[in-house]
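Issue 218. Parser rejects a valid record. Input:
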Amino acid sequence: MAVPTDEVAIEALTRDAYLSWIAVIGGTPMPVNADHGRFIRAGLAWVAIAEDGSVCAVVEMEPDAADWTVFNVAVGPVFQGHGLGSKMLAFAERIGAERGHREIRLYTNRKMTRNIELYRRLGYIVTGERTTARRPGNFIVDMAKNLAD
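Output the parser choked on:
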């Protein structure tokens, strides 16, 4: 579980992890400007620690959602491509199942096609699309995975 002293590292990691998406979606992804301390205080943020002691990945769950919903899964650029994001999602799935949730949800920008394909490979299905007032012309893709299997 993330602790308050992880907040600055989570902010930097999230910013760096999403940097390549800014040009793709035409703006800064929501997790970059989030109040990561809020997730930590709610006990809904977990980090992976690299051998050197640095935070290399994070998963944060929505504090206000009735469902078990991923708000942010981010992996530091030097650690990307090694399955760490998938492991963070699997961890969130396990915690959700332990807490009695039958489903895990997440959402992403429709233009983040690489992420959507990863989520599909991990067993998530598209449950809908919606517009976003925050960024006109962009669409949010809602996805879910059954945890009861």
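Fixed in the parser; the record now loads. Residues 127 and 143 are 5 Å apart (CA to CA).
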